[in-house]
Amino acid sequence: MNINELLVTAAENEVSDVHITVGSAPAFRRHGLVIPIDDSCWANLNLSPEYFEQLTPEKTKELAGQLMTKEQWDKFYQVGELDFSYHIKPGYRFRVNAYKQQGETALAVRVLSTKILTFSELGLPPALETLCEHKDGLVLVTGPTGSGKSTTLASMLDYINTRKSCHIITLEDPIEYLHVHKKSIVNQREVGKDTASFARGLRAALREDPDVILVGEMRDLETISTAVTAAETGHLVLASLHTSSAVHTIDRVIDVFPPHQQQQIRVQLAGTLRGVIAQQLVPAAGGKGRVPAVEIMVATPAVRNLIREGKTHQIASHIQTGARYNMQTLDSSLQLLYKKGLISEKEVLSRAADPETMKKFF
Questions:
Q1: Chain centroid to CA 252: how far?
Q2: Where are the beta strands (DSSP E) in 208-322?
Q3: Cα–Cα distance for residue pair 184/169, rounded to 1 Å
Q4: Are 67 and 3 in contact (CB under 8 A)?
Q5: What is the pLDDT at residue 135?
């Protein structure tokens, strides 16, 4: 069994993720569903029978070994998990997480697109263009794992790269989308390879004359604190968080800090935040593909005041009434997608923040 053949097959069949684990045939995630390739729905794949068999501990270990260098293998066995990027040939790139489960080796491999799509191609609202036009401040893209945050951030960077003459630095773990120099100069740093951590790379970035800084994920207090400081000192900072809404995002940033620092960070965040994009990927009607449902919060003077005063629970009502500022709730985004025939009523009701109110629209 050759891991490269399996990954290329995945990339050529609209698969987003490949899962390798003991006791199951290799499994593909397509359109949000994870299905082992011994299932009849994959009968058309041009693979030899061995790929449809349940994997043994020896086989998963062998497949993982085909992806790693000796140094990566040693580190994986020392710490129990490892993130890294992997490419086979031009046009085939992957993000790999190798991990131990019940003492055995497992893999989760994300298939990466080599083409960076525009906002319109992704189905994202034009409000994102306005957020990219800022010269400084903090823009956060949030959502659960697999919600397309990295894809949205790549599109935002490409928008800036195409239109502005500036210096862009990215901090990623690992690097997913490769950006070429267009109107801007883009330097991409990978955590673990080019810098030890997000926090260390972000501190160093402040001395590297950047105009725009992308932080792949704000994971800890030091990274969040440095990102806010960078936004305060004249840089546009784009970053991601694993939160479900704009309000939860603001609360998450503040709650990371100890109680005696929270009022200070409220004031800093109120001054630097430009907007929050909270997104989900919703299965498309008909079962083919997924479309983004997006909540957008723009940091208007009223929103800034609520952040400063610790009244974040009132922000949701400002988003509901903020259409003239290009704001929209998740529920209004779901409603619009349904009206366009892109998603089903079932998906709207299962994902809506207020499903009872949404029922009135059907």
A1: 17
A2: 212-215, 236-241, 273-283, 290-298
A3: 10
A4: yes
A5: 97
**Cβ atoms within 10 Å of 325's Cβ, excluding its own:** 19
Give the strand pairing for 236-241 and 212-215: parallel
Question: What are the distances in angstroms from CA 249 to CA 24, 122, 148, 277, 312?
Answer: 37, 23, 16, 10, 10
- Amino acid, res. 79: V
Structure-token match 């003239």, residue found: 324
Burial of 189 (0-12, 13-18, 19+ CB in 10 A): buried
The whole-angstrom separation of Cα 243 and Cα 279 is: 9
Sheet holding 137-142, edge to edge: 185-190, 167-172, 212-215, 236-241, 137-142, 273-283, 290-298
Cβ neighbours, 10 Å, residue 309: 12
In angstroms, the CA 112 to CA 27 distance is 17
Distance CA 97, CA 317 (A): 39
Domain ranges of the chain: 3-112, 119-361
Beta bridge partners, 17, equal: 29, 110
Instruction: Please say whether the dihedral angle defined by the alpha carbons of residues 246, 139, 143 and 254, taken in this order, is positive or negative.
Output: negative
Cβ distance 82 to 97 under 8 Å? yes
Domain 3-112: CATH class, spelled out: alpha beta
CATH architecture observed for domain 119-361: 3-Layer(aba) Sandwich (3.40)
Q: Quick check: 171 and 223 in contact, CB under 8 A?
A: no
Q: Percent helix, strand, coil in the chain (nearest 5)?
A: 40, 25, 35
Token pair 């490269």 is at which residue? 4
Asked if 173 and 202 count as a contact pair (C-beta separation under 8 A), the reply is no
Distance CA 67, CA 128 (A): 37
The angle subtended at Cα 269 by Cα 298 and Cα 241, nearest 5°, is 75
Query: Residue 209, Cβ neighbours under 10 Å: how many?
Result: 10
Q: Give average pLDDT by consecutive 10-residue segment, the chain, 362 residues.
A: 94 94 95 86 83 94 96 94 89 93 97 91 95 98 92 97 98 92 97 92 96 95 96 97 95 96 97 97 88 97 97 96 96 95 94 88 80
DSSP state of 20: E
